[in-house]
Amino acid sequence: MHPPSRPVASTSTLVLASSALPAVPASAGASPSVPGPPGPHEVRFATFNAALERPERGTLAEELAAPGSEQARNVAEIIQRVRPDVLLVNEFDHDEEGAGPRLFQDNYLSVGHNGAEAVEYPYVYTAPVNTGVASGVDLNGDGEAVTEPGGPAYAEDAFGYGLFPGQYGMVVYSMYPIITGLVRTFRTFRWADMPGALLPTLPGTGEPYYSPEALEVLRLSSKSHWDLPVDTGGGRLVHLLASHPTPPAFDGPERRNVARNHDEIRFWADYVTPGADSYVYDDRGRRGGLPAGVPFVIAGDLNADPDDGDAHPRAVARLLEHPRVNDVRPSSQGGRGAARRQGGANDGHAGDPDLDSADFTDEPGPGNLRVDYVLPSRTLTARSCGVFWPTVDDPLFRLTGDRPFPSSDHRLVWVDVVRPGAGP
């Protein structure tokens, strides 16, 4: 049950709170990792893979029903320290009742931790994802289509890897109204409907990896792609383009996950490119992408580093170099310190460790990578930005730490943008 003051507007879509606490900056002593508040005409967008996925359906909501989860407390405190206005959380198990997002708000975000001020988000959006949803066909090539949840064989034949429907889901918390009537989701868009898709082939023969039956149903998005129009004031909309592409790993020589990761990222590049977006259709059948000049912020754990790791070399570069996208390169000193301290694969990286946002296995690799992004459109003026990755001598290092991580192996990434029409 949840308090009647937070009614669910419609099942699994929008959760509304009755009021919001003022966005008072949290005190963190001498911590240099805590940003000051955004300016009076600025909106802070952020993404955070919070690693709040659990191995069994319903476990996360049960855990969040009480205030005793140390990991959830640490995740909440990080959010309270940075205080995003609009926050995408990846790896937050979806449940049809929307209980998880409500309970995380009530029992964790709404409770101050270690001197940080509580934060209340009036608007929360969540919706179904493809992870753990049975496809009904053989996707992993073992000759069997597993349709009963439970175990890796089922997860590998699901539309997106997941042990149960909703594992590794997404949720958006916002201080500003999300215009639900204009929301577009692309969960059911078929991969084969993307012109020039990098559909995997068998090495040596060049034959399609997926059967015709699989290609008939296989969806592009491993979780979902969301276009959420956010009213930043006076009807001035900024479209949050949220997703969490599959990792480019855990596959065979056909590199099916590398290909899918590339095309999941490419979807947004096409979506914001008039002319390249003509093939796009959403879950309601509406066609086309985002018109020219419309402000947007692309956010999420994209699971692709432009310089290192296993992703396709052009996967995220397509976005970072896009003429409509402004890569402001959020950074931290903590990322550089971690790469130096941990060594291993990090020693051979070509990318700037200041930009890293995830602390992955160093031996044998891939090491720490830049995989989490907040990319505003060039129609928005970007101001401050950063990655919440405290250095070892920072009093808040306890929130991120080293393996085993007290919160997540990813770091919260944030960018402040001037709301449309607010001037320079």
UniProtKB/TrEMBL annotation:
Signal peptide positions (record): 1-28
Protein name as catalogued: Endonuclease
Keyword annotations of the record: Endonuclease, Hydrolase, Nuclease, Signal
Pfam short name (any one): Exo_endo_phos
Ranges for domain Endonuclease/exonuclease/phosphatase: 47-410
Gene3D superfamilies: Endonuclease/exonuclease/phosphatase
Domain of life: Bacteria
Biased composition (Acidic residues): 353-362
Entry-linked InterPro entries: Endo/exonu/phosph_ase_sf, Endo/exonuclease/phosphatase
An MF annotation (GO) of this entry: endonuclease activity
Keyword match Nuclease: yes
Region (Disordered) residue spans: 319-365
UniProt keyword Nuclease present: yes
